[in-house]
Write a structure and sequence with these properties.
Blueprint (H helix, E strand, L loop, with lengths): L14 E4 L8 H13 L4 E4 L4 H4 L9 H12 L3 E5 L7 H6 L26 H18 L5 E5 L16 H15 L2 H8 L19
Parallel strand pairs: 1-2, 2-3, 3-4
Length: 211
Amino acid sequence: MKKNIIKDFPHFLHGGDYNPDQWLHLPEVINEDFRLMKLAGLNTFSLGIFCWSQLEPEEGVFTFDWLDEIMDRMAAEKFNVILSTPTGAKPLWMSEKYEDVRMVLADGTRERSGERHNFCWSSPTYHLKTQIIVEKLAERYAKHPALKMWHISNELGAHHKGSNCYCDYCMEGFYRFLRKKYGDLDTLNRVYWSAFWSHRYDKWEQVDPRD
């Protein structure tokens, strides 16, 4: 068993995910949370897992005051914080403004806004937006006394409806992968045994990952 995963804290990490961003309109609930945390002997909390819309309610408008307060309270209670990147669920403003962040399903339709883990992994827009919010968090909290670890995204993978994305960006990436793996179409055809049912491929773009 690994010991002392947090410097100067030779104890078991005991706690869980905490989502005060869902209760900002009810400060009495957050006050009660902190009372119960101490009563239960908890010492470690993951914060911010799905709070992107509270951190950036509008594009380029960042509201960290509420998280500042929570982080300061955590430090005052000598609690450990595992601060999360909020990239597992994108804000609705992003989905509505930038279509490419929404994955394309196997039937060719764009996924609607909402839910979670339904972003396009290849979207240039999503790459840029995640970089911005992650850098903002790092710049603001890297030296905060409550911060002990980072929680990178959440449940890595596209779990939404078991879907993969089939947008142009993802398909281009898939064909690059095939070229790199097999080198030429003759090799791919042999490995895929594409002569069966007369499914021999004459060009890379004929390979459909949805089959």
